[in-house]
Amino acid sequence: MSNPTRLLIDAGNSRIKWTFVESQSQLGTVISNVDLSSAIDAWPLLKKPDQVWLASVRDEQFGQELNAAIKSLWDLPVNVICSSKKALGVTNAYAEPQTLGCDRWAAMLAAYHESKRSLLVVNLGTALTIDAVDAEGHHLGGLISPGIHLQQEAIYVGTNIDCIPDISTFDSQELFAPSTAEGIVSGSINTISALIDRACQNRIKQDPDTLCYLAGGDAEKIKDTLQCPCIIEPSLVLKGIALIAAAE
To answer: pLDDT at position 25, please?
Structure first.
């Protein structure tokens, strides 16, 4: 099959992003849904793909529901992406490569394929993940921390604070906030940006040509607080899925 059409699915903890690809090099329109049922409702409007590819951090039940839906719609198998020891010029640092999140792996492959240089690959979703890759494609390991909303939830679980922060009111030019709700927002966002900047400074000391990629739903909220130069690629995981599928 010279140029198969593919449905690519990135199932994160909070959202499901998907796109229909008719060429190896370019993603179609990226759709974001909060749940699987919303995505399934949209798929009958598509023409039947030749292949379906999935990168998922969700549980086994999600996989079963997705497989059943795809089989019912098109009688196709779902190709599930798993992290490997080496792919597309990148070598995984983990002693047990399959335990690295497949979304992180796909994002690293896409970023390295695009740049071929020292990288930080940052995914700002439910969790914050930061992975370092050197110019030769060696994954150096990563960092994992609660994302913006998990940090805010921790405040409510561990204290008696009951105000509701509105992240849309955040002002990246102001560090100190005039209310408790705004203070929680500023604290969570600036904690994350400080960690990203520290990771970036660490890598730039080793390789001044290091480039930082930002992916995930909260990338836009963070970008203006960062001191390090960065590229925003909201669909980096889907790009990685497309590359993995094309290489098979």
So the answer is: 61
